[in-house]
Amino acid sequence: ASALHMVSRSAATHTLRELVHAVCSDVESGMSLHAALAAHPQHFSGLYVSMVSAGEAAGILDTMMERLADTLEKNEALSAKVRSALTYPCAVMVVAIAVLALIMVYVVPVFEDVFKAFGADLPWPTQWVLAVSRLLGESGVWLLCGLLPLPWLWRRFQQHEVWQNRLDRWLLDWPVLGRLLRSAVVARWAQTLSALLAAGVPLTEALGPAGQACHHPVYTRLTVHLQRRVSQGGSLSEALAHTGRFPDMIVQLCATGEESSALESLLERAGALMANELDEQVNGLSSLLEPLIIVVLGGLIGVILVAMYLPIFRLVTQFGE
After folding, report:
1. What does the alpha-carbon distance between residue 195 and residue 272 come to, in Å, rounded to a whole number?
2. Minimal CA–CA distance to 106: which of 144, 142, 140, 147?
3. What is the dihedral of CA 48, 52, 53, 57, to 10 degrees?
4. Which pLDDT does position 140 carry in this prediction?
5. Which of helix, strand or coil describes residue 289?
C-alpha cells in the first residue's frame, strides 16, 4: 500500500492518479493486488492480472513486476516499429496528394485560359486533366466537407464486429502489410506467453492473457481456439499448426519445447526471432517505399505536365508545317 501511495503521488496525470488511488484503496481494504487490478479491466489487461496473481502466489511479486515491465516494453517496441513503418508512407502520401491538389486547382487553370485563346481542339489527356481541375475548383470545398464525417464513420465501422473482422482478416492477407502485421502480432504473442509460463502460470490459463496482449481480434479468437484444444488434452504445437496463421518456425519450436519441457525458453527465443524478422521487414519496407513514392508522385506530375504541353506542341507543329 505504501508503494501504491508513492506511485499515486508521482503520477503524471490526474486520471492515472485517481486510478492508482482506487487500486490502493482496494488493497488497504483487504483485497489482493491482482483482484484490485482486475476491477479495472479497461486499464489492466489479463496479462497484468495473471502475472501479478502468479507473483503473489509464489511470493515473488517484485520479480514478476520487473518481468511484466520488460514484457510490456517489448510489446510496445514491436507496436512502435509497425507504427513507424506505416506512418512515414502515409505522411508522404498526404503531402503528395496536397501538392497535386494545389497544382490542379491553381496551376492548371492558367493553362486553360491560354488554351481558350488558341481556340484549337484539345487532346483527350488535356481535356481530362482540365475536367478534373474544374471539378476540384468548383466542388473542392464540398469534397472537403464530405471528408469530415470520415473519422466518425470509421469509429462506427470499428464498432461493427462483422465488418471489422473481415477487415482484419483482409489486411493479414496483404502481400507486404499482412506479413508485417503477422510478424508483429506473433512476436508479441510468443513473448507474452513465454513470460506468463516463466512466471508459473499454467499453459491453459496463460493463453487467454497472451491472446489479449496481441491486440489483434483475429489472433485473440485463434488463441481462444488454442486454449480450448489444449484444455481438452491436445498439444499446443498441433493446435498452432491447425490454425494456419502461425509460422512453421513457431510450430516447430513449440513442438520441441513441449517434448523437452522447455516451452517458455523456446517461446522467448521464437519471439526474439520474430522481432528480428520484423526489424528486417520494416527496414526493407522503408527502403522500398521511399523511391516508390517518388516514382509515383513524379509520374503523376509528369502526366499532368505532358497533358498541359500537348496542345502547345501540336500548335508548334502546325505552325512549322
Report:
1. 13
2. 140
3. 160
4. 67
5. helix
To the nearest 10°, report the CA torsion of 161, 16, 23, 73.
70
Q: Is 120 left (phi over 0), alpha (psi -120 to 50) or beta?
A: beta
Residue 159: the pLDDT is: 62
C-alpha cell at 217: 481480434
Q: pLDDT under 70 in the chain at which residues?
A: 1, 58, 118-120, 140, 153-154, 156-164, 316-321
Residue 2: DSSP 8-state: H
Would you list the DSSP string of 273-287?
A: HHHHHHHHHHHHHHH
What are the residue ranges of helices labelled H in the chain? 2-9, 14-28, 33-38, 46-58, 61-102, 108-118, 124-147, 150-159, 161-172, 177-198, 203-213, 217-231, 236-243, 248-260, 263-320
Coil, helix or strand at residue 108: helix
Cell of residue 99, nine digits? 501538392
The DSSP letter of residue 42 is T
In this structure, what C-alpha cell is assigned to residue 282? 520494416
Distance separating alpha carbons of residues 292 and 169, to the nearest angstrom: 26
